[in-house]
Amino acid sequence: MTRIVIAGGHGQIALLLEARLSAGGHTVQGLLRRPDGADDLVAAGAEPVILDLEQASVEQVADTIRGAYAVVFAAGAGPGSSAERKYTVDLGGSVLLADAAELAGVRRFVQVSSMGAGAPAAPGSDASWTAYLDAKTKAEDDLRRRDLDWTVIRPGGLLNDPGLGLVDHAPHTGGGTVPRADVAEVLAEVLDQGAAVRQTLELVSGAVPVFQAVQAWKG
User: Fold this and answer.
1) Is residue 30 within a helix (H) or strand (E), and if so which, with residue range?
2) Which residue of 30, 131, 165, 185 sits 20 to 30 Å from the alpha carbon of 45, by its own alpha carbon?
3) Contact 20, 46 (CB under 8 A)
């Protein structure tokens, strides 16, 4: 049994991932800014840890994750947040967690990014979306420079539909949508199989069972 720590532990994908990992026998901790979401993590089988990545020091985060098998960065400023918070959370939080992982000796780092990262926002996009893609791009770039066993997953448009268990998981999918439940399942399989190390993969609904899709990126 391994311990996995998820930043942004009260997010929709994170809660689904916590439930999946806990059911699979892992010890799961979820980092969250405020205690008012702690009951949801407990219900998902995770231990809530109150830690604000916008305020914490690298030493505090390192102490929290030390001894874990892996960390997952699933945090985000969220819809309606300012462009400034896209940088302090989506970029700054990822950089802080990666710094802490290096300090604590936690090599496995899985980052939930976004379809569209890696390129500028389309002309005419609003300031918040432009900042979001820029922050995600810079967070990815920061991670790739590190000597960590990183994986970057870029989901397409997120849906609250039930998971289909069928995906397209490749460097370039051409866009599309995907249920959050399938994103969580892919993240869990990436961790369980030790797959897609030092790979950046887009993720949308498709025709390949999740286990098989992830297995193709193992080794």
Assistant:
1) strand 27-32
2) 165
3) no
Residue 88 and residue 131 in contact, taking contact as beta carbons nearer than 8 Å: no
How does pLDDT run across 111-151, given as a tens digit for each residue?
999 999 999 888 888 888 999 999 999 999 999 999 999 99
How far is residue 82's CA from residue 78's CA, in Å, rounded to a whole number?
Answer: 9
Instruction: Supply angle C-alpha 181, 144, 158, rounded to 5.
Output: 20
- Does residue 17 contact residue 5 with C-beta atoms inside 8 Å? no
pLDDT at residue 93 is higher than 90:
yes
In CATH, the architecture of 3-215 is: 3-Layer(aba) Sandwich (3.40)
Q: What is the pTM of this model?
A: 0.96
Q: Residue 19: what residue type?
A: A
DSSP per-residue string spanning 3-16: EEEEESTTSHHHHH
Provide CB contacts within 8 A for 210, sequence distance 6+.
165, 166, 167, 182, 185, 186, 189
Residue 80 has pLDDT above 80, yes or no: no
